[in-house]
Amino acid sequence: MEQLKEYESLFPFIEELIVNEFNINYAKKSLPKGVAIFHEGDSCEGVPFVVKGCIRVSKIGKNGKEMSVYRVNAGETCILSVMSILTNEPYPLTAIVEEDAEAFIIPYEEFKKLMGASSDFQDYIYKTIMYRFQEVIKVMDEVIFHSTDERIIKFLLKYTENDGDMIEATHDKIAMEIGTAREVVSRLLKEMERKGWVHLSRGKVFVIKRTELVKKLEKLV
């Protein structure tokens, strides 16, 4: 466990494990960008605790369209892998490494042992479950109760601060993030470009008149 001490600032429960001399097996892995660590329907053999990089968890429909559900960043774990282990159910979504990542993996039996032995570990897991459920509810709320126009403007404002700021994202990626079709994103962005609010380039969106986007959003909400 001493080898995990360097990650104590990311995962506070590690301190209790070291103090109480818990002896658990784990594997440290490097996860290159683009690798799928879980596919929908996979059995879950262990829980990843990310110490570097980012893993994107998404739903891929039968038509091939994809929607991001949440991301797992440094200091976080994938709560669906936790639920799969606790319920003995297959992994329900797809998890792909979005940025080169590193993680330590706690195997099935070791994870269950920790849940019964470490109060700090339990507390971390339960808080993560609550946080992720709130995040998923927020995504559902956006898709169900907010128009596509509103969602795409929120996306543009989220990743910019000033006129002229650039977002590096394809129309496919934006569609995946806001839960709609690429064709819809392309149509709305071209409409904004005609109004002079944005400028479109291959794989990039330049926000030209951010204040106009803010005004439009205020009318939509």
Which ranges are low-confidence, i.e. pLDDT below 50, for 5 or more consecutive residues? none
Report the CATH superfamily of the largest domain: Jelly Rolls
Quick one: CATH class of the largest domain?
Answer: Mainly Beta
Structural class: alpha+beta
| Overall number of strands | 9
As for the CATH topology of the largest domain, it is: Jelly Rolls
Number of domains: 2
Overall spatial form: elongated
Short description:
By secondary structure, the chain is an alpha+beta fold. The chain has helices at residues 13-19, 79-87, 108-117, 119-145, 148-158, 171-178, 182-194, 210-220, and strands spanning 27-31, 36-38, 46-60, 66-73, 76-77, 94-107, 166-168, 198-201, 204-207.
